[in-house]
Amino acid sequence: MKKFLALVYLCLITVSIFAVNFDVNQYNESELVEIRDMIDLKLVDSKKGDLLYEDENISINYIGWKKEYSESTLWVSIVNKSNKNLIVSSRDTSVNECSIDCSFPVSILAGKRTNGYIISIYDSTLKEQWIDDIEYVEFKINYYDNDDWFGLNVDVPDKYIIKYVMD
After folding, report:
1. Whole-number Å distance between alpha carbons of 122 and 125
2. Which of 80, 84, 91, 154 lies 20 to 30 angstroms, CA to CA, from 5?
3. CB 120 within 8 A of CB 104
4. Average pLDDT of 56-63?
């Protein structure tokens, strides 16, 4: 019953958001098909090794989801290409459109690589938010110099949407 009510609520929210911000009449049929395809592309299953972000300082690749006991974690591979010790984390995270603070920082020494999880979601947190199953997670990426608080600090403007798919 909770799933059904949550689905109805999500549908109502989605419809009201589109009703307020989306005027179907301003688009022709082929443009609407293109918009639908763009939305579908954003929710494509990520594959192990897919590049999420790269710049002159770091490279971040998707590894996958891991479920252990009552915790789901999103794992990435990070290469630190800089000469600074970095902290990488997710921010502005949400699960199924519900804002949840589930960021987990990963520390990487200068010039090294590591695998780690940048999102950690506990089942108890999902229950608090009335979420039965994770469908997808939305987040942004931030990294900064671990040794100099006033130094390098990068907020990646892109928003990432990752489907929850267990390998």
Report:
1. 5
2. 91
3. yes
4. 95
User: What does the DSSP 8-state code read for residue 23?
Assistant: -
Q: If DSSP codes are grouped into helix, strand and coil, which group holds residue 158? A: coil
Cα gap 61→78, rounded to integer Å: 7
The more confident residue out of 53 and 25 is 53
| 114-152 per-position pLDDT tens digit | 999 999 999 999 999 999 999 999 999 999 999 998 889
Query: What's residue 20's pLDDT?
Result: 47
User: How buried is 102 (Cβ within 10 angstroms: 0-12 exposed, 13-18 middle, 19+ buried)?
Assistant: buried
Question: CATH number for the 51-163 domain, one of 3.40.50, 2.30.31, 2.40.50, 2.60.40?
Answer: 2.60.40
Cα gap 57→141, rounded to integer Å: 13
Strands (E), the chain: 51-54, 58-68, 71-80, 86-95, 98-99, 106-108, 113-122, 136-145, 153-155, 160-163
